[in-house]
Amino acid sequence: MKFETKENITQEELQRGLRSVTVDGVMSHLMGVLTGGVFLVAIALKLGASNFQIGLLAAIPPLMQLVQLPAIFLIEKFRSRKTVAVYSALISRFGFLLVVLSPFLFSPSIGLAILIISVLFYSGFGGIGGCAWNSWMRDLIPENQMGSFFSNRLRIATILGVFVSLLASMFIDFWKKSFPDVEIYAYSGLFLVGFLVGLIGVFYLSKTPETAMKVQKTEFLKILTQPFKDVNFRRLMFSLGSWSFAVNLAAPFFTVYMLSKLGLGMSMIVALSIVSQVFNFTFLSLWGKWADKFSNKSVLAVSGPMFMLSILGWTFTTMPEKYFLTFPLLIIIHIVMGIATAGVTIASGNIGLKLAPKGHATAYLATNTLVNSFAAGIAPILGGKFADFFAARNLSLVLKWSSPSRELVFQALNFQHWDFFFGLAFLIGLYAIHRLSTVEEQGEVDDEVVRAEFMDAIKRPIRSLSTGAGLFQIISYPYSFIERGIKHITQVTNK
Known about the structure:
mainly alpha, Growth Hormone, Chain: A, single chain
């Protein structure tokens, strides 16, 4: 069955459609919470996954976005992005049923193989649907509402995701204590709920209207190469591609690091994730408003360095083992990462939508996704290999003071195992921010304006809570320090 497209959509139909897109986004996010992230890594480790296999699981979703290449041809053939998006999303959800059933039918080694195949299946069809969805949304949502709409959509999804992840972690801990011999069954339950929630999202997606595609009498190869001939869009693709590589080199191993190196329990890891999501939720609307008011590029120039600083912060959580500042640092890292992720997610998605010309969005957005996906896909695979290589490597710098009466030794630097990822990802991320400075976006303002808005948004609640000017000065000092640090990094990367 092929869905109907319309030449013109009324305001009432648009508003109804935007509500459906919001519900679909929320349901898809909740499905991702239950079947991905911390819980996906946890079930993989429970099934005996190695560092390489963890990296492979993280690499599959972005690498399978490469299917957007044939998806462009599929969309141009059917001329109905809604048809491609809805059916692809529906089929992709059924991959998780294999994971639900595998603990009851197969051994852990076979179950791990099924898990990898299921993620492959889900990601493949999800990539096809995503290609159609991006182009569909580009033509459906008014350009001046993109930032606020997607930030609001993410805010709703994030706050519900917090409660769902908390309930899921409590369920896992309860099951683990009550039925320790069959702990794996608890994860099957999460995947089953995730599957059902995903189906609800597909239902609402099918209720969203679609504008008719513009006729494009161009050869398929020419359509595909158009984005690379656009100098400004090409710069954007390589900037976002470098960023994706940096983030995915380290991020997939955060959970592994906390489980294996720091020895944290699942509830504690989920609690830290919730802290990050709460701050993500708090700042989503602000970043979305600033993206519409100023520019996506300006938002990225501020949130990007913050995110990179949070990655670098992981190297200081051990010295070289856990110490009294480990947990406070983890809290700070997750707070900063939550704030920065909100800005990066909103702006990186919107800048591609904004710079892709209307009528040609399918090819532009799909090609952008291909570049990003390739970079994001090879990064965790390399990361998994590097994890084993660097396990026996160590880089340290020791400061030593000797006198006739005493000897003082201070370990100024100690890089080992996972620290190499975090340091390397930080450097590559700075390069990506530098590349972003060459991209031109209509309406962009100086980064200092967004930075000032950001710092004011942080200081404002502190002022209202402060009982005196002296207290405010004490509290505000760390924020001014962060402000100067962000400004310095931005200036360096823009040179």
